[in-house]
Amino acid sequence: MAGLLTALLCASEKSANIARACKREEELFQLLIEEKKGPEKNKKFVQDFKTLADVIIQEVIKHDLEKKFPELASHIAGEESNHFENGLGETIIVKVCKTEQATAELISKVLDGNLKAAGLLSKCIHEDIRIDGPASEELNIDIPMDTIGIWVDPIDSTNQYIKGQLEEKYKSGIHSSGLKSATVLIGVFDRNSGQPIMGVINVPFNDVDPILRWKGKYYWGISYNGTNIHSIPKQLPAHHKLLSIVMSSSEKEDITKALAHLCGDKLYYASGAGYKILCTILGLADAYVVTADTTFKWDTCAPHAILKSIGGGIVNLAKTLAEVKSRGPGVNPELQYKMPDEESKETEKWANTGGLVAYRSQQHLETIINALSVE
Predict the structure, then answer these.
(1) How far is it, in rounded angstroms, from Cα 185 to Cα 274?
(2) Residues 122 and 266 in one domain
């Protein structure tokens, strides 16, 4: 598994480089933020450049992983479609070509002939990324390659990625908005059990140096057959009695009030499901709670695997509350990643229907469920 994990890390770092390039290079940045007016405002390629950045990253991850592990080709899925219609009405299928020039020519068709921007993207796409992953002896785990699937979220918290800055304002280490909430998520799951087994979270804009160059950071974890390995720094024991919970600012008022009784001033708000779960993984919060069906398998697979590797997990909130009300505390229904919700609309079939709780410890989970069961 050392080879697969290293491949995931390299793919995530190349993706982070593309995300940084789109914010750094003026030719790409103007496309990222531009809103055309007048006769040009209906040119779809401009409106969709935000999505194109997502799609390119997703296709890069798929291409690089399939190149090293051909058997995974039909088992890598993500949020985005790679079909685009340019300003001339032509449908373009975005993919990584054999050469940098061919990829640039293809992307330029989506960008209505903008060769400079396409060339900048293509250079990042074909860059050779090398990362010294964990030593093979540290990952002496046999996971059959023919039983795994991969979920990809190329840029989680896209709106903050497009509009955000590297905010300095934060509370207890948690940024409520800005570039730090943008993450690249690559999660591996077992196609038989549906359980997450390996995850990588890359934060492309984790920090900035004195000359305003963004620096990223990545985290990984593996949880499989009782073996748990991760890169998460060891946390010091918490001495506060109150729970700390991170959630969306759009959460229902009754839920917020119920949790406020547990948290006091340790109820935090942030953007991006991946980032909020990362805050939980890093111990900046004890849990992340969301009641709406606004997260998807690609949002949670990677961080779920990392949470499992440190002793936590992610449960379906609605099912857990139903279990408690009907049979009392018992086995909590962890999220699974192999089956869609057949009763949902096509666009929502991979949603985590019923909300979720991401937690670091079973005790924290039980406290939260008991508080919400009263509602």
Answers:
(1) 7
(2) no
Residue among 112, 212, 221 nearest 166 (CA): 212
Which of 66, 141, 158, 251 is catalytic? The answer is 158
Choice among 13, 25, 54, 190 that is catalytic: 54
Residues 159 and 119 in one domain: no
Q: Determine which helix (DSSP H) or strand (DSSP E) holds 4, and give its type and residue range.
A: helix 2-24
156 is catalytic: yes
> Which CATH number characterizes residue 356's domain?
3.40.190.80
Let me know if 209 is a catalytic residue: no
One-letter amino acid of 358: A
Reading the block at residue 34, the tokens are: 């531009």
Q: Does residue 190 have an active-site annotation?
A: no
Of 140, 163, 197, the one marking the end of a domain is 140
pTM of this structure: 0.91
Taking only the tens place, the pLDDT of each residue in 247-298 is: 998 888 989 998 988 898 899 999 999 999 999 999 999 999 999 999 999 9
Domain that holds residue 338: 144-375
The answer to whether residue 25 is catalytic is: no
Tokens 């936590």 locate to 312
Compute the mean pLDDT over every residue in the chain, rounded to the nearest whole number: 87
